From TrEMBL:
SUPFAM superfamilies: PRTase-like. Residues 21-162 form the Phosphoribosyltransferase domain. This is Hypoxanthine phosphoribosyltransferase. It catalyses: GMP + diphosphate = guanine + 5-phospho-alpha-D-ribose 1-diphosphate; IMP + diphosphate = hypoxanthine + 5-phospho-alpha-D-ribose 1-diphosphate. Pathway: Purine metabolism; GMP biosynthesis via salvage pathway; GMP from guanine: step 1/1; Purine metabolism; IMP biosynthesis via salvage pathway; IMP from hypoxanthine: step 1/1. Belongs to the purine/pyrimidine phosphoribosyltransferase family. Gene3D superfamilies: 3.40.50.2020. It comes from Rarobacter faecitabidus. The keyword Signal does not apply.
Amino acid sequence: NGSLENDIEHVLIPTDELNGRLDEIAREIDRDYADKDVLVVGVLKGAIMVVADLTRRMTIPVTMDWMAVSSYGSGTKSSGVVRILKDLDSDLHGRHVLVIEDIIDSGLTLSWLVANLRSRGPESVEIATMLRKPDAAKVDVDVRYVGFDIPNEFVVGYGLDYDEKYRNLPYVGTLKAEVYSGR
Ligand code: PRP
Ligand code: MN
Ligand code: MG
C-alpha cells in the first residue's frame, strides 16, 4: 500500500506534456469562440481534471454545467449501456455547447451523449477530449479538439479511474497486471 505510484507500470503522458497540450487547446478554443458565449459541459466524473485545467487557461467567458453518465461501471470494458446519473441544470436552446471529456475509448458514451444534447435545441455542439484511442473506436465521433491519440491500452490518472481509484494521479499511465488480478 502507500503511494498510488507503486501500481503504475509506466507513465504514458507526463504532467508537463498534459500542460503543454492544454495551453495549445485553450488558445484554439479562445480563437474559435471569440465572439460566442460558451456553455462548457463536463462529463463527470472523469472529465473534472480536464475541465478545471482547460477552462482556467481560457480567457473567454464560459459557463459550466455538468452531466454524469456511466458506461463502464467498475470494470475496464465499455458496456455500451449509457446511464444518466445526473442531468444538466441548463437549457440548451440557442447555446454553443462544448462537451469536455477525459477520454474517447469506444466512442459509445459520447456518440450517445452528443445525439442526446443535439436534440435539446443548441446552436452548436462540439467536443474536446484530452485522450482518444483510435484503435478502440466502435463508432465515429466528430471531435473538434483532441489532446493525444493513445494506444489501445487501459490507462488511469488525470481523472481516469480503475474501480474509482487513481483519478488523482497528475499524469496518465498504465497499471501493473497484478493490480487487475487483485494482488
Ligand atoms: C469513461 C470515460 C469516458 C468514457 C469513454 O467514463 O471517462 O467518459 O468512459 O468510454 P467510451 O468511449 O468507450 O464510451 P466512465 O463510464 O468510466 O465513468 P467515469 O467518468 O465516472 O469514470
Ligand atoms: Mn467518464
Ligand atoms: Mg470510469
